[in-house]
Write a structure and sequence with these properties.
Organism (chains A, B): Streptosporangium saharense
Helix content of chain A: 40-55%
Function (chains A, B): May be an activator protein for the gylABX operon.
Oligomer: homodimer
CATH superfamily of the largest domain in chain A: GAF domain
Largest interface: A-B, 67 and 67 residues
Largest sheet of chain A: 6 strands, antiparallel
CATH class of the largest domain in chain A: Alpha Beta
Number of strands of chain A: 8
Structural class of chain A: alpha+beta
Order of helices and strands of chain A: HHHEEHHEEEHHEEEHH
GO molecular function (chains A, B): DNA binding; DNA-binding transcription factor activity
Protein name (chains A, B): Glycerol operon regulatory protein
Number of helices of chain A: 9
Radius of gyration of chain A: 20 Å
Number of domains of chain A: 2
CATH topology of the largest domain in chain A: Beta-Lactamase
Pfam families (chains A, B): HTH_IclR, IclR_C
DNA sequence: TGAGATTTCCTATATTGTGGGAATATGGAG
DNA sequence: CTCCATATTCCCACAATATAGGAAATCTCA
C-alpha cells in the first residue's frame, strides 16, 4: 500500500492502533464497515482487529447494534496516564495562573503532528480536555515545535499546513522563522491564527535536557492580552511553567543530576 | 505457549495490548526488559511491540532513560471515551446523590474481571477515578455480575476469589448465591468485604435489554448506612441510576424503540 | 577502568495475519 | 408481511509478517 517510511516490523499492531484512532474523528460509535472504510483495510482484517481490541477491553461492542465504541481499558489507562504523569497535582497551579491573568489556561502535550490538551481551562467540549489542535496554527504547537527534540522538529513532516483563518501560517519557511523567533523570545504567540478574536500565549515546560515535555497556554481576547501586556503575561506563564517543571518531573527522573 | 482458550487470530495485537496493560500494575515508567519480564515475551518481541506503540503515541519513551511510559494517545482517547459516553453530563446527578446521602459516590464500568471506576467520588488516588476493583469483593462488582449479559456472568471465569478481608466471599457457590440475591433485591451490598469499616451499596444502570452498562455505588461507614436505612439508600441510588440511564443512552440508541 | 545488565539491531524460519468469498443476520422499503 | 440491500461474521489457502536467537552497542554502577 503505502511505501511507508517506517522501518518497523509490526504491521498488525499499527493497523490495530489506526482502528482505535478512527474514533478521534468519527462519532462515538462506529460500525465494522465504518472502521474498514476509514482505515482502508479489508473488511475481514478490520473486523478481526476490532475483535482483538474488544477482547482486551480497548473497544466495546454494543450487543444490540454490533457497533463499536471505545472501551473501558481506554478510560482506565487514560486516567492512569493522567495520574502517572502527576497531572492531578497541577490543578492548583493552573487555577492560580488563570486567576492571576483572568485568562483561560491550557496544558498540552505533543502527539505527532498535534497538540493534545491534557487539562483544558474550559469545559466546553469544543476546546476542552482531550482536544487535538494542529501544531502550526496554535501557540501550544509552536512551543512544542520550538523545543522539540532533534529529529521531531521538522516542519516538513507536518504535511500541508492547513489554513484555519487568513492569518494562519501556511508557508513552511515562515513557520520555521516563527519557530526561531519563539525559541529566542521564550514564548509563542497565536494572534487569531486558529480562530478569530482569540489571542494565546504559550510557554514550554522543559525537562533538564531543555526539551519540551508540555506546553502551557493562557488564552483570551486581544483586549485582555494587549501588545503592551504580553511581556507581563509571558512572565506569569513562565513562572507557572517553572512550578510545573518541579511538579511534573518524577522523583526517579529528579535524582538524575545533570552537571 | 499457553493453550489460550481464545479463538482469535491476532497474536501480535493481543500481545501489544498486554504490553500496555503492564502499566496497570507497574510503576509510571517501565524499561524494555521490565515489559519483557511482565509479559513473558522475548526481549526482541517486547521491544518491537513497544516501538510500534511509541510510533502511534500510545507509549512514550524517555529520551534519557529509554524507559517507557503511557503516551499522549492514551490520555487523548481516554478523555474522548469519557466524553463519547456522555459522562461529562452526569456529574450534577452524582453530586446530588452524594449530597442527599452524605456518602461517597462512584460510577464504574466492567472491564473483564474488574470494575473500573469512571467517576470516583474521592480524589484520593487510592480510591479514585481509573481505579480497578475486583468484581467478587465489591458492591460495584456484584452488580456488574448480577446483570451481566449471558456468557459473561460466569463466576468460574473470574479465577480464584482472593480474600481482601475475612468477610470477602471466596467460595464461587456463595458468590453465585449472593449474585442471585442481588438480582432479586435490585441492589448489592458490600459490608466490609473489601476493606474494614466501609459499607457500600450499588445499583445497576441498565440499558433497554436489561443488561448493565454501568454500576453506581454509594459508600460510607456502617454508622451512616445502617441496616434500617439500607432501603432508603437503595431508593436514592436507584433514582439516580434511572436519571443516568436517560443521560447515558446515546440519541442513536434511544431512537430504537423497544416494544 | 571494568563487569554486568540493558537497549537495540539483524536475519532465517514458520507461525501468524491477510483478504477473497460465502453464509448469516439486520434493517428499511414497498 | 415480504423482499432487497447492506452489514456482520466465518472459513480457508497463501505468503507476508512477526518471532526469537544472538551479537553489537550503550549505559550503569562500582
Amino acid at each position: 500500500m503505502e511505501k511507508s517510511g517506517s522501518p518497523s516490523g509490526t504491521q498488525a499492531v499499527q493497523r490495530a492502533m489506526s482502528v482505535l484512532a478512527c474514533f478521534r474523528d468519527g462519532g462515538p460509535t462506529l460500525s465494522a464497515s465504518d472502521l474498514a472504510r476509514r482505515t482502508r483495510l479489508s473488511t475481514s482484517t478490520a473486523h478481526r482487529l476490532a475483535r482483538a481490541l474488544v477482547s482486551t477491553g480497548f473497544l466495546e461492542q454494543d450487543a444490540r447494534t454490533a457497533r463499536y465504541r471505545l472501551g473501558p481499558s481506554m478510560t482506565e489507562l487514560g486516567q492512569l496516564s493522567f495520574h502517572q504523569r502527576g497531572l492531578h497535582r497541577v490543578a492548583p497551579e493552573l487555577g492560580q495562573l488563570a486567576r492571576a491573568t483572568s485568562a483561560t489556561v491550557d496544558l498540552a502535550i505533543r502527539n505527532g503532528p498535534h497538540a493534545v490538551i491534557l487539562i483544558g481551562g474550559s469545559v466546553d467540549p469544543e476546546s476542552g480536555t482531550g482536544l487535538r489542535r494542529p501544531l502550526h496554527s496554535t501557540a501550544l504547537g509552536k512551543v512544542l515545535l520550538a523545543w522539540a527534540p532533534p529529529g521531531e522538529d521538522d516542519v516538513a513532516a507536518l504535511g500541508p499546513l492547513r489554513p484555519q483563518t487568513e492569518r494562519t501560517i501556511v508557508d513552511p519557511e515562515d513557520l520555521r522563522a516563527e519557530i526561531e523567533r519563539v525559541r529566542k523570545a521564550g514564548y509563542a504567540l497565536n494572534d487569531g491564527e486558529s480562530s478569530h478574536g482569540v489571542r494565546t500565549l504559550a510557554v514550554p515546560v522543559l525537562d533538564r535536557a531543555e526539551q519540551v515535555r508540555y506546553a502551557l497556554a493562557v488564552r483570551s481576547t486581544p483586549e485582555v492580552i494587549t501588545d503592551t501586556r504580553i511581556g507581563w503575561f509571558a512572565m506569569h506563564a513562565r513562572a507557572c511553567a517553572r512550578a510545573l517543571e518541579v511538579l511534573l518531573l518524577s522523583p526517579e527522573e529528579r535524582r538524575i543530576t545533570d552537571f
